[in-house]
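sorry for the late reply, my laptop died twice this morning and i had to redo everyting from scratch. anyway the thing you sent over, i finally got around to it. pasting the sequence first so we're on the same page, its 203 residues, then the predicted structure underneath. double check i copied it right bc i was rushing
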Amino acid sequence: MRPWSSAWPARLTAGEVTVRPLAYSDARSWRDARRRNAAWLRPWDATVPPGADARPSSFRALVWRLHRQARAGTTYPFAIDVDGRFAGQVTVNNVVRGSAQFGSIGYWLDREHAGHDVMPRAVALVIDHCFTAAGLHRIEVAIRPENSNSLRVVEKLGLREVGYAPKFLHIDGEWRDHRLYAVTVEEVPDGLLARLQHHESHE
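ok and here's the structure:
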């Protein structure tokens, strides 16, 4: 049994925010949220570069693939609920084991919940889970310099900026530059959520 086998599935809660495995039953809520927020999310959504495999995938096929990867410990696809309603997604991907114990995190949120500290809490819950149950050592977040909402998330979490990656990801139809942020388990001995809550209590 792999040492991180207890990392999935998981359900984590902070106040009205819960993160839990993305499920087949999320199909309608997921599609509705993506449709309502299409224009708002388009500048930040990953796209497939010309010449790459761009075959469309159904939501069911997406969930099946993500859950298979989660069982292997290489991806952790979490849905975000606010007061029991689907609100977005946080996914840990590109998990590297061995001597690295590293992963990347990406996220999106229904616009109606923006500005209410939903995403900082959801990301903190997932990173804390990665550092404990999943046994990871470092988490990285790549953000387009123009994405002020996402930059506020890492600012509230106190993540360090560690680099700048030109033409890093194919986003909204072009190769885009990204700012890189990271946190290691040593930086948050009491957990990232505890640090966020301490920060909020002193605002």
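The CA atoms of residues 156 and 199 lie 8 Å apart.
thats about all i looked at so far, will dig more tmrw
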